[in-house]
Protein 1
Amino acid sequence: MSFPAAARRSLADSQMRHNVGHAVEVIRAKRERAVAELSDWEALRTAGADVKARALVTLPEQLERLEAEVARAGGTVHWARDGAEANAIVARIASGHGIDEVIKVKSLTTDEIGLNEALAARGVAVTETDLAELIVQLGGDRQSHILVPAIHRNRMEIRALFERTIAPGEALGDDPRALAEAARTYLRAKFLSVPMAVSGANFAIAETGTIAVVESEGNGRMCLTLPRVLVTVMGIEKVLPEWRDLEVFMQLLPRSSTAERMSPYTSLWTGLYPGDGPEEFHLILLDGGRSQVLADEVGRQALRCIRCSACLNVCPVYERVGGQAYESIYPGPIGAILTPQLSGFHDGTTLPWASSLCGACYEVCPVKIDIPTVLVHLRGRVVREVKSPAAPEAMAMRGVAYALRSRRRFEAAQRLARLGRGPLANAALHRWTAMRDLPEPPGQTFREWWSERPIPPTHPRQQ
Amino acid sequence: MSTARADILAAIRAAIGPVPVPGEVDRSYRGPWAHAPDVDLFCDRVQEYAARAHRTTRSGLDAKLHELCGERTGVPAGFPFPGIEDELLDVQTLSSLDTVLTGCALAIAETGTIVLDGGERCGRRALTLVPDHHVCIVTTSEIVASVPDAIASLDPRRPLTFISGPSATSDIELTRVEGVHGPRRLDVVVVDERAGG
């Protein structure tokens, strides 16, 4: 479905609009306070952008260092060209241990590659342990926000869902506290017994082989600590070169994401540690279209993204349509530039237009991704590479190029523009003028005025 | 060598092309000033997460811990306060504890964070995760000013856990609920080493 069609569907859902509108307003205000506290915020953003840009142009070296360090600390590193390969590796690890149930830390990357469905198809049951992801999973639903994926659901719906699924026969009430308690009870049994967990990674440090997961609920700590086998799936762009780079991102991420000074829990681990945590650790490095994104010098900055969701919360388009209209695990402004690129322009080719180019996303981005510039760049790529040469934009641009090639044609075009104003243009361009006003062409062009002007008397040149 | 590995590295190299190696990262965010760790700030920030911060001295510590800890209190093996020592207790036993009492590797004033590193004062990760109540002793000399100061003095080879308040979720209508899967209550006991008595 195109973005305009999906957006129209979302706009009809008043519950979703109300919940998303409220959520972004609250988080936006909180983020401003959290960011204002740090006098060096702009310098941190610059450092964040620099570190990531540096990691991307030295990516082969960083990945090789990461691989060596993880292996040195007792972990096993796997490489996956695409999602299907990554999913098969996870499934193979599970079946190698005779495991038919895994628990999961919230991870956008594993959602991107459809890991849950792939494992289910191979007879491995997956339980999401983040509260919002559990709500989405139990309801067969789709995420509407990166940080709070079930924000489109209200407490009554969640209560009914839980009473139908994880707490049958119980009367939970509408209090979020009671609903969270029901999830705690249900998941605790899983944490204490399920032998394998799958996580994503917020960061991976090439220098030391350390992986970082930032979270709030403690479900991440449970998954990273208690099961015997831990598998982490990370996109290759998550790597940071040096240990000290963490000091930048552990300040940028929480304040941009949950708008806190620090998220409740950040877990850092390096391979295996005797007597503490899993006995087996696998790291899967996923390409999944990322190397092709790197080839676009303008578009590649999208790979700096640390998935904080600050750009969603300030986007006037996202605020109104919510995350589901983007039909991708990556919604909002970042999704509009990431989804088309990751899919090689198979998906989301209308997404680069899902923006008013107001630039608010760029201002809040902790790694200074210039989203408006990338949007405009991708619009060009879609028109040149994806759309047919008969598409209206392509034809219009060819027309303009033709007219601008000679003075005679340009002047004729100007006269035509004056004639063509009004009902004629509105009829021909009704889809464009429905949302915009055509500029009023002047009664006389500069060129016409110049050629008709009275010839001024020539002044004698001063000697 | 796996072909996936070779293919991915080759695809990345082809995509990047010959790019000059970038210069050093500008670390001016660290500023020219040196912050002194601020104990009052640390305590305030801990409280803002809906955790409790308590100030005490060496001599007042025992009484404070007795007041805070439940009947069945777990401690890391060899910990200098009495309790059920964690000799690889199974998760059911950990789950049945009222309280877990530990020290920390360091604490961060600016963010109100305690950091555990799996050392003998902190215990292994499961010990401070499964019980419902965590009491953490922080001596004032363990408090650093900022996140960069913390990163600089931690050992990345150890399993590290940064804890900023009790576990929390805002997933249902953005209503904050404290205490989901990690300990639902966190008490931070700050021991002032400079104070007399």
Note: Chain B touches chain A through 69 residues (CB under 8 Å).
Protein 2
Amino acid sequence: MIEKALSRFTQPIAVPGRRLLHHIPLRFVQRKVGGGGQRAVNAEIPLIPFIDFLLCIVLFLLASFSATGELPIDKSIKLPNAENVIDMTEAPMVAITGTQILVDGNPAGSTRVIEEANRLQRVEELFNILKNKRELWKQLNPAKEFPGVIILQVDRKVQALVVKSVFQTSAYAGYPNVSFMVGRLGNK
Amino acid sequence: MAGIDVGGGHGKRPTNHEIPLIPFIDFLLCLVAFLLVTAVWSQMARINADARVPGPPQPDEPKDPPKEKQLHVEMKGEEKFKLVWKEGTTVVNTIDIDKKAVPVGDSGDMRYPDLAKKIVDEWTANGAHRAASDTKLDQAVLHTDNSTPFQDVVAVIDAIYTPKRDLTWAGKTEKVPAFNVTFSVN
């Protein structure tokens, strides 16, 4: 048998149409959908309130959006957790990683020097940066009292000697109100 | 769907328009998803340590104030904490507490509930600043080894901040830690 060659435009797969139970007239459905003098079953989805709701969510999320957040300056810092804590405040951030001291992300000394000396000492680089920050703040806000708040982000493994040295340096530089950034433990 | 009906037409090109709401909703949903994913649900907080001993300056403070009792918390020992009440250089009372660390979670954090309880008892018995109108706090001085890891230091500071008292400031009364913590430089 010679098969008829398929033309270029012949589709071997037919476009599906209504097939399933097409022989059943389903008049009641037609009546219902068409109204049939009774209440129609078609319904409009109320999109406008839905859009209003979405816009509210977007506005709320945008308002609470924080590009910088309160995340540690250095991702390698693992902060300890505490229960009796207070809320964060805006202040200069000093981060102490395993080896480095950073002020707002910029290097401000090394922890190795303190560890090798094995005694409490002032970190000169940190002291100068903080002192400059303090003077700049005073120039910008001549009428206000300097709050002297500083936040230390310290890795949980850092030795107390380094923490105390940075604490003392901050106090010398005019930041006596030192806070340690911690994770919130429990439900407080 | 929403549309703009300006009427008319009169056989010419219709000026009514349907606003495409579905792409707009898709856009909003994408925006919501992005903002939710990038939102910083921060659990960060701070624990205070004030270098100003004995606390922040007061406007009506006498020039030569009487020496106050300070609670010295020594965590240098391997097995015991030592709580020492001092008036200037005079030791008033000394209490030893076993170092019983209770691990919290799986991140290596620990608490010292026995120490916290004892500090609460000690402040209840000996604390000098209790009135809500008193803006000064009792002073605690923390003595640590140079090699103590910072997480241990935080655990002890957390225990020192356990006792709370009322403080009225600018017409508002709130609960604040009874002690102000600072470090010993020795």
Note: Chain A touches chain B through 55 residues (CB under 8 Å).
